[in-house]
């Protein structure tokens, strides 16, 4: 069986992965922009560890 | 085999719906590739690590403390699903088939030294039936008669008729095979098999249902495994040769929308590969189960018997009976125990399995557990034996063909039996915690049982986007970016891992039917928890007419609630805000869309009709 045929059979995995990546990037972009607008400062660095996300969110909302 | 059917079958069963599929050939087993396996294992580990990071973060840093009623069930569901993923990864870890060996010429090649005298092997092929069309059974008998063997063999075919039908007896006489019946239906199929075992004496037993049509190579390809005297059961993959193939997308759209439709369909198929509309509407194709799940239990000696298409060593089956009987009277007086001990102890050279079986007949024995899942239950008893390491083998090549459930009712009955039977064992005689099995075997059985419990967390996953889009309450309290930073690597790696782990097979149908069949598993779970007996209805082999919508009302309810909540969320977001966010709407909308697509497969199955019936309706219209 060719690689192409195997990929065809497994396409649901590939499509799901692509949708996840595209949708995730889109949602993060939208939410960061909203946060920035509401808080009046740049969006947080998501790679940095957060000790208490709920508290951080409350602070932003305050 | 097909020639035999054509030659002999012209006067019978010409109008069976499956006659047109007679020329179909089963797919070859998936080829083994060490490089693909290594990539799968690498990605699987990466996925599990990413998943562990995500689950840890969910418990420690992202629970919505203001809505614990929602946050806790959600995180518990995620954790249970992650544990299920861990088990499933272990199940799929590697493929190592048992080595194929030459078919034995003498029974002495299949037993320990001195346990039998030199003679050809003897095999009984049982065709268990209850109310199936006698002409359907005739096809199976004729195919069974074509089974060949390269050595001299004592091969006998018996129809086990629990319907006590004169027609069935007449067919057996016409075809020159044995007819076995009894005056009651105690134990249903298991009781039927027990009755037949009491009247036969073959070294090996082939289990077939009324629609199981063995290929001529079945014995030649499988009896060699029994050269290992510890091999108790060889299961061959079940293959449904009547699964609808569907129609190419470009043809369907071309029929409905002319050239533009055909061109669009063709363009889509060029990008995504061939798409068939209406293919396998009930997700019946068992290839994933046999070629991936069961086959990859071979390295751990944990493949289990699934009934039709399996070959059993009579001695091993008898062992199950004796062990179960011994357990049952374990608390009885000493004289009863000693009687059992005499039956179980090793024999002298001149006494073979048959002698032990005859001795056992004097007792009230049940070779196959009188249980709705007698196949897996009997395998469990074998695997639990501490005194002898019985082995079970999944032979990767298809050696018979059979019919699939042709309507949603038959499909539901079958799935309910699987789920109810497995959960009943899990709750009332759990092999995972009882002594006897190796750790790997326990993990494999736990994987099976855990998958049936999955309906509980799948229900949470189905309801979660509805709850958010209706109430604006998220179960997660974190920045969106933080959430996706941890969830995305896990989810994407998981998809890529299983792309490689199931390389060569499509797992989509199985995945969505697993999600969409949650009501069946929940009903089975509810019945088992209340200690209700899971009944033994025979899975209908003929298509049942009627409306099956009543079977899918939970799926329709989920679809409707998801659509309603999405509309509500969008309306609130774009009017008053209502605490919603666009990101939340998109993320939960896509999640809900995934759920709707999964549910829709089951709802479409309720409306499915064979191509012939659809054509008739269209021509009438």
Automatic annotation (TrEMBL), chain A:
Region (Disordered): 37-62
Transmembrane segments: 12-30
Keywords of the record: Membrane, Transmembrane, Transmembrane helix
Protein name per the record: Uncharacterized protein
Source species of the chain: Novosphingobium mathurense
Lineage: Bacteria, Pseudomonadati, Pseudomonadota, Alphaproteobacteria, Sphingomonadales
TrEMBL record, chain B:
Main location: membrane
GO molecular-function term, one example from the UniProt record: hexosyltransferase activity
Keywords assigned: Glycosyltransferase, Membrane, Transferase, Transmembrane, Transmembrane helix
InterPro entries in UniProt: Glyco_trans_2-like (IPR001173), Glycosyltr_2/OpgH_subfam (IPR050321), Nucleotide-diphossugar_trans (IPR029044)
Listed CDD domains: CESA_CelA_like (cd06421)
Subcellular location: Membrane
Membrane topology category: Multi-pass membrane protein
Superkingdom as given in the UniProt entry: Bacteria
Position of the signal peptide: none
Name the UniProt record assigns to this protein: Cellulose synthase (UDP-forming)
